[in-house]
Specification:
CATH architecture of the largest domain: 2-Layer Sandwich
Helix content: 55-70%
Number of domains: 2
Largest sheet: 4 strands, antiparallel
CATH superfamily of the largest domain: PAS domain
CATH class of the largest domain: Alpha Beta
Radius of gyration: 48 Å
Number of strands: 4
């Protein structure tokens, strides 16, 4: 499946680096979102603790005097808080004496509940419970997550594009040099060598290939010249042999001498 990666230097470099960039971006986004959620919940819990402590201090008087209308009156301003869901006050026997707002359903994870004992002269006379909504925190977290993921994706794409451009600028001339050497090896000694203008290591490689090309061309020219001289010599010898053969065939035969 990934055979093409093994055949390409650019792919062997780009694929792992882009994968690493994506992993780092996703991990960074996840860490940022989790920290935002933790900080938001911590701030909301601290706010809830302050509210419940203030409420417990103010409810001690009317609850100890059995003024349950006064207790309900003190709970009512809490409903103006944008994250307020509900509040309850029970006496020392656990009997509900006042309530404001609505209680979340059992098992709901959309609320934060804090409680505090109501003390009067050091005696436990009841308990106040305040429930705050997490919907606002979740909306803010979702907006932060979208923003963080968008930034991470943008940075990842930018780095990947820069990395791909740099890799291609290196891999392309190397591939061209490889093709050039293949053509030189096949006998095409007039093939131009690319990247000779570069002043980096690729330019040095191109210079070496150019020297190799020139030497191949010179060797080819020497072999061609030697072949031409050899053919000319063979032609001269053939012509000379042919001329000598014709000359010997035209000579008259020698006469035999008479015995005297």
């Amino acid at each position: 499946m990934f055979g093409w990666v093994r055949k390409s230097i650019a792919a062997q470099f780009i694929v792992p680096m882009i994968t690493l960039i994506v992993i780092v971006a996703v991990a960074g986004a996840a860490i940022g979102v989790s920290r935002q959620w933790y900080n938001g919940i911590a701030a909301l819990r601290e706010r809830a603790n302050v509210l419940v402590m203030v409420a417990a201090g103010g409810l001690a008087g009317p609850l100890s005097n059995l003024d349950y209308n006064g207790v309900a009156t003190l709970l009512r301003p809490l409903s103006h808080d944008p994250v307020f869901m509900g509040a309850t006050v029970v006496d020392g026997k656990g009997v509900l004496r006042a309530a404001e707002g609505s209680m979340p359903p059992a098992g709901s994870d959309d609320s934060l509940t804090v409680s505090s004992k109501i003390l009067k002269d050091g005696a436990d006379i009841g308990e106040v419970k305040i429930i705050l909504s997490l919907a606002r925190e979740k909306r803010e977290l979702q907006a932060f997550a979208v923003w963080t993921i968008g930034i991470a994706a943008g940075v990842s794409l930018t780095l990947a594009a820069i990395l791909a451009a740099l890799t291609v600028s290196i891999a392309t001339p190397i591939s061209d040099l490889t093709s050039t050497m293949g053509m030189l090896a096949s006998g095409r000694h007039d093939t131009p060598v690319p990247a000779l203008h570069r002043a980096d290591e690729i330019g040095a490689m191109a210079g070496s290939v150019e020297v190799f090309r020139r030497r191949l061309a010179e060797a080819h020219e020497l072999r061609a010249a030697r072949g031409r001289r050899l053919r000319a010599s063979m032609a001269t010898l053939s012509l000379r042999s042919h001329t000598q053969a014709r000359g010997s065939s035209k000579r008259p035969p020698k006469r035999k001498s008479r015995a005297g």
